[in-house]
Amino acid sequence: MVSAAIAREQGYEIVALTVDYNQRHKIELESAVQIAAKLNVSEHIILPLDLSRFGGSALTDDIDVPKSGVSDDIPITYVPARNLIFLSLTLGLAEARDARDIFIGVNALDYSGYPDCRPEFIEGFERLADLATKAGDQGSGFTIQTPLQYMTKADIAKEARRLDIDPALSWSCYDPAEGNLHCGLCDSCRLRQKGFEEAGIADPTRYAITP
Question: How far apart are CA 96 and CA 52, in angstroms?
Fold first, then answer.
């Protein structure tokens, strides 16, 4: 949400892509629709891609989402190659729309240690994009924009306020509780709550259990 709002502020026309990968937290698809409308995007594609057929993650398989706190290890909520898959799809869409800038909201500070959020991955994909496409081959390469890469969650919360977008529109929780509540205990909920607290901004999130 914040990444897209920054793109809009910089004067970009936004073509938004949301992937319905049969994730446990499908409520984030509803959130994406609301955000796309709020940001007045020119096009919003919701693309079905059932990664539960692969499994291997608590977000796409019958595996419990960890609730014990953020650890130093890559958690079971890691979806195999998810950002690589998502960026590949986005690259195809960008080339089809004659766009050259791709925005993604990855973060390498307050996160769960996923390897596909690291700057090295983004830099590598940008090089790959130029090798893998007609546009790149003809000298019109792509830029992967990561405006949140080195922000803390507190910084991101402050950016949402500066950009005048309601953080309540966004969804973070990996394991939604009954009544469309954030569970409050998964990594994503804990990092979300921590960000609002450190930013000194009231957290509008409805939690089943306060982190």
Answer: 27
Q: Is 186 annotated as a binding residue?
A: yes
pTM listed for this prediction = 0.93
Q: For residue range 136-187, list pLDDT tens digits in order.
A: 999 999 999 999 999 999 999 999 999 999 999 999 999 999 999 999 999 9
State the total domains in the chain: 1
Task: Establish whether 189 is an annotated binding residue.
Answer: yes
CATH number of 116's domain: 3.40.50.620
Q: Residue 76, SS3?
A: coil
**117 labelled ligand-binding:** no
Classify residue 56: in a domain, yes or no.
yes
| Pairing of β 15-20 and β 101-103 | unpaired
Is residue 41 predicted with pLDDT exceeding 90? yes
